[in-house]
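hey
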């Protein structure tokens, strides 16, 4: 049985890296679900062990944030914000700065995947209508959403997971991760501005983009809900309870049906999390991880030092993805310090900018922009993504070391 569990574990994370099974239309969520079912059917993981393995508080927080994002989606805020950026008057440098600032700020308080999913097609269409090469602005959208999301515990799924695993406090996380995240936003702007300097030098046509309808009352409701959620996260109340309470309040609506709000929840991501929890628990119970950890500790290769954590997160985030990588590391890593958890959150998120496949946000922007008629591929993204990621990680490593959060 040990060999079987190890094989399923390895196959699952190979699937995470490939993104699909060759010849089949099964994606990452399908791969993780198949693996979890196989482990339970064969008895490698009992139903009771499976129930205990799932981190329900993390899933509850994710669900609450998705419901909050749904409020803004249905109110038309993201579409309005994207069209407003595309219609802004002035040169392309100012437009690029606005894209970075808006996407970074929004991603710090709501899920970055939702931000990119909603904004990318509207921004691509609006810029194309003005005769603007949309590629640099879309690459900036993806990179800034990743960088901005690194600042807070609610910016992305991996931060939520890490915060729950370590019991990290919201304001402590912001104090440690906020400054390097802000620096990463500046780096994003400067790198994209330099790489696409020829394209950005062209004067765009005057704005002719029509702003979509915006339900200001519902946007205000979403803003109030966001402020309440952050206040609750700062309080001693459990974060899962806080997120679910805000989600329940948003469901009480005369404007949006419950079905409409639930349709905006990313159930596939929630299922992916749950299934990876099960696969990792089976691997832990099989005892394979313990021997591997003992060997790594003997070699000084546990990711408790920046010299190890930085390359590990850079490699893992750009192969199996930053969310699966964090779930994997937390399941195998002995209880890390708070500083190490800050480092894991910060570095795994910033590493996602390296390649197009490094984060879900990058892939979402590429796919949504393609649907709007703007094609940019692996090479286009790498021209900016590689320097953005490496420079951002260098700043983050220096910050963590100088602040005494982690040893070099």
């Amino acid at each position: 049985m040990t060999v079987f569990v190890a094989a399923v574990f390895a196959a699952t994370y190979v699937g995470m890296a490939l993104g699909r099974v060759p010849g089949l239309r099964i994606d990452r969520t399908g791969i993780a679900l198949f693996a979890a079912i196989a482990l339970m059917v064969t008895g490698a993981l009992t139903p009771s062990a499976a129930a205990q393995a799932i981190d329900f508080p993390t899933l509850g927080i994710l669900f609450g944030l998705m419901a909050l994002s749904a409020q803004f989606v249905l109110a038309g805020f993201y579409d309005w914000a994207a069209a407003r950026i595309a219609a802004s008057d002035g040169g392309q440098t100012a437009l690029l700065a606005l894209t970075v600032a808006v996407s970074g700020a929004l991603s710090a308080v709501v899920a970055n995947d939702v931000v990119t999913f909603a904004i990318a097609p509207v921004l691509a269409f609006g810029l194309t209508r003005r005769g603007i090469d949309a590629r640099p602005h879309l690459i900036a959208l993806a990179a800034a959403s990743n960088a901005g999301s690194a600042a807070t515990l609610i910016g992305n799924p991996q931060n939520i997971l890490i915060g729950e695993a370590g019991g990290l406090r919201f304001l402590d996380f912001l104090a440690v991760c906020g400054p390097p995240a802000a620096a990463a936003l500046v780096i994003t702007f400067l790198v994209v501005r330099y790489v696409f300097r020829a394209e950005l030098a062209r004067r765009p046509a005057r704005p002719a983009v029509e702003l979509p309808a915006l339900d200001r009352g519902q946007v205000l409701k979403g803003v109030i809900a966001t402020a309440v959620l952050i206040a609750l996260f700062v309080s001693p109340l459990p974060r899962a309870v806080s997120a679910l309470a805000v989600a329940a309040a948003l469901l009480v609506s005369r404007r949006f049906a419950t079905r409409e709000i639930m349709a905006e929840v990313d159930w596939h991501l929630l299922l992916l999390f749950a299934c990876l929890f099960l696969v990792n628990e089976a691997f832990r119970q099989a005892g394979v991880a313990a021997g591997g950890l003992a060997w790594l500790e003997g070699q000084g290769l546990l990711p408790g030092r920046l010299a190890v954590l930085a390359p590990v997160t850079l490699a893992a985030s750009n192969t199996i993805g930053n969310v699966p990588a964090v779930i994997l590391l937390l399941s195998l890593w002995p209880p890390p310090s708070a500083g190490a958890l800050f480092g894991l959150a910060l570095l795994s998120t910033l590493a996602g900018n390296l390649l197009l496949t490094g984060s879900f946000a990058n892939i979402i922007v590429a796919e949504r922009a393609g649907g709007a008629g703007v094609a940019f591929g692996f090479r286009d993204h790498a021209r900016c993504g590689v320097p953005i990621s490496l420079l951002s990680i260098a700043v983050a490593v220096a910050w963590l070391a100088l602040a005494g959060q982690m040893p070099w």
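Residues 120 and 365 are 6 Å apart (CA to CA). Residues 2-402 form one domain.
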